[in-house]
Amino acid sequence: MGYHMAKSFLEPQAFDCSYKPSEAEKKIPEQLADKWSQGDTDALAMLWADNVKYESWVGIGKIRSVYQEIFDCTTNRKLVIRSTEWTRDPVTVTGEAMLYATGCGWWPEGKLFKYSLTLNAAGEIDQMFWWWRDEFQVASL
Questions:
Q1: Measured distance CA(122)–CA(11) in Å, rounded
Q2: Are 111 and 4 in contact (CB under 8 A)?
Q3: What confidence score (pLDDT) does residue 89 get?
Q4: 109: domain range?
Q5: Cβ neighbours of residue 14 closer than 8 Å, sequence gap 6 or more
Q6: What is the pLDDT along the chain (141 residues), one digit of tens a residue?
Q7: 3-state SS, one letter per residue, for 81-114
Q8: Could you give the CA distance from residue 67 to residue 81 in angstroms, rounded to a whole number?
Q9: 77, 70 in Cβ contact below 8 A?
């Protein structure tokens, strides 16, 4: 699966590099964890690629922007910081309005990382798409 779940935070917390991901978590993530939102609170999900951590905080209730950062525990420095605005997707699934977001960035190994995802009304990720340069992956959760 390639992820490590953490409890929901109201505010972003400092990352503890003493955490050691499992071998599965060290792989380039193919999909995001499901059910990582807790209503209107900010949620934290962490994805690992070797010793690099990728995380996202999402404010589902107010459809706030997403704070994302890549942190290299080897050099103890941030690699990428960006925010992505959430919008309501005009397409509805089973009668529910969907949240939709897209973003992009660069992984340390030079791969261009792009994604798009949709969340249902419960804040659960329905589908996430990953692009690794010319490679395309889709995860239906």
A1: 20
A2: no
A3: 38
A4: 3-140
A5: none
A6: 222 222 222 223 334 445 454 554 444 333 333 333 333 223 333 333 344 444 444 333 333 334 444 444 555 444 443 434 444 333 444 444 444 555 554 444 444 445 555 555 555 555 554 444 334 333 333
A7: EEEECCEEEEEEECCEEEEEEEEEEECCCCCEEE
A8: 8
A9: no
Residues whose CB is less than 8 angstroms from the CB of residue 16 and which lie 6 or more positions away in sequence, other chains included: none
- Count of structural domains within the chain: 1
- Residue 53 and residue 16: Cα distance in Å, rounded? 10
List helix spans (H) across the chain: 23-26
- Rg of the Cα trace of the chain? 15
CA torsion sign for 36, 38, 39, 43 is: negative
Q: What are phi and psi of 72, to 5 degrees?
A: -95, 110
